[in-house]
Amino acid sequence: MYSAAQMKLLFLTVMLSTIIAITPFSTDLYLPAMTNMASDFKVHITLIQQSLSLFFAGFGLGMFIFGPLIDRWGRRQFVIWGIFGFMLASVLAAFSTQIEWFLTLRFIQALSGAAATVAIPGYIKELYGKDTPKGMSYVNLIMMLAPLIAPLVGSLIMGLGQWNLIFLFLAGYGLIIFILSVVWLRFPSDHQSHNRSQLSFIKNYQMVFSTPGVKLDILTSFFASFAFFCYITDSSFVFMQVFGLDKYTFSLIFASNVGALILGSFINGRLLDRYGSAKLLAAATLLAMMTASGLVTVNVLGLSYYYTILTLLPFMGCLWVMSVNADSIVYMQFKKEVGTASAVIGTLKFGSGALSGPLLALFHSGTAVPFSGLLLSAVVMACLCQWMNAFLKSRR
């Protein structure tokens, strides 16, 4: 049986995870509805797809703006008002009749969601203390369920009616976490102003970037995210165009790779007490390099897609372990500037998503070689960052 303290910890962990899950739900839930939306708005589907890029841009900008403000003025008010703004924008988006209004509301939805989610790593650090890496691993494990089920939920909603219901569903989701936050989001830091940063907006960022070793861990997280977005961007082309698989088979492969991310997060949580974040990050980076090298090899040799799957599955699990531990190591360096650190990491992560598409297009060859080559390049760069970090620490 769990104690009352353990049950409260579990509840708060799940609640914080549902707030972070705003992003994948907002981006993945309406993917099955894009064709219908283009028809209703009487625009080309590429314009509807651009709403996804606009959301990422708004989310990255929101994290950049709100991160230092949260460190200065406290987290709770930004979380609650951010969720409220997300909920309101979702309702208005559901009833939009002009594409211009819809795109504007998507941007507002992203800004509001960012105000809420950028505060969560600080709460996790406060909740778990020295076990923050474990807390981050658990939160990300729960959060990863969102992109796995979101397209399925979106398809089911589309079976009930028009695309508008998807955004009403998002509004309902926002309402639930809004109520939970108002009632349960009450941490000591919310009323202890002396624990907040007294630095200005710019100086908060200066503090983060001037902390020894942090920049290289942030870059490690950036390269891990870049590899992840390369997979998201190009996996459908690789499996459906290069290997000629149907949508059903691709869906199973995609789900299996999400499963690898979840398994990696679970294993990471179990091993953290024994080995710590730094060792797990180093081991995951080394294993990711090995599996990515195998991925490049099987595609250069033109082997069956089975070999691509066999090398990609462990690679994706390692990628998640790299990302979670690199982020946790950064957060543990700060007491009052966690929001700013989260903003830096989040902005760079979404920036890596914007970078992955053009680079994949630049090296496009009609094969899976550029895709696998970019994945290998990303983890090699992450490895170099970790090697340089270790070297600099030995010199201090």
TrEMBL record:
Span of domain Major facilitator superfamily (MFS) profile: 12-396
Transmembrane segments: 45-66, 78-95, 101-124, 136-160, 166-187, 248-268, 280-298, 304-326, 338-363, 369-392
Xref: NCBIfam families: efflux_Bcr_CflA (TIGR00710)
PANTHER family the UniProt entry points to: CHLORAMPHENICOL EFFLUX PUMP RV0191 (PTHR43124:SF3), PURINE EFFLUX PUMP PBUE (PTHR43124)
Coiled coil: none
Family annotation (InterPro entries): Efflux_drug-R_Bcr/CmlA, MFS, MFS_dom, MFS_Efflux_Transporters, MFS_trans_sf
Similarity field: Belongs to the major facilitator superfamily. Bcr/CmlA family.
Subcellular location field: Cell inner membrane; Cell membrane
Organism listed in the record: Shewanella surugensis
Membrane topology annotation: Multi-pass membrane protein
Sorted UniProt keywords: Cell inner membrane, Cell membrane, Membrane, Transmembrane, Transmembrane helix, Transport
Pfam families: MFS_1
Protein name: Bcr/CflA family efflux transporter
